[in-house]
Amino acid sequence: AGIGKCVAMDLARRNARTILACRSRERGQAAVEEIRAATGNPAVLLRLLDTGSLASVRAFASAVLREEPRLDVLVNNAGVTGLPFAITSEGLEQTFATNYLGPFLLTNLLLG
Fold it and tell me: Transmembrane stretches, by residue range (predicted)?
């Protein structure tokens, strides 16, 4: 939704192979279908990613590096605000993990 969806729509309009990294399979698939229909680009894909989970970030990065011959652009757009204080299963504060640590780790893993 929001800025991330707009960026994905623009990339797909430019005929880019576009991977939507979403926490929710249902919302992500709906966005994929909407973007494909609006752009005519069938190369819009959904991959599940929760940047609040470093295990999820590692699994996502591993899959992208294994499945994709190249990666030209990475848009780190995930973020949360206003959540009640919570600690992840990895012992990290949820908002900090989601907004900073996860995207930082993802970027570094994808740099190769």
Answer: none
| Tokens representing residue 50 in the block | 């929760």
Tokens of 111: 């740099």
Looking at the DSSP bridge assignments, the partners of residue 22 are: 48
- The most distant pair of C-alpha atoms in the chain lies apart, rounded to whole Å, by 43
DSSP line for 77-94: -----SPPP-B-TTS-BH
> Is residue 103 within a helix (H) or strand (E), and if so which, with residue range?
helix 102-110
pLDDT tens for 73-106 read 999 998 899 989 999 999 999 999 999 999 999 9
Give the C-alpha separation, 42 to 12, whole Å.
Answer: 9
Using CA atoms, how far apart are residues 13 and 103, in angstroms rounded to an integer? 25
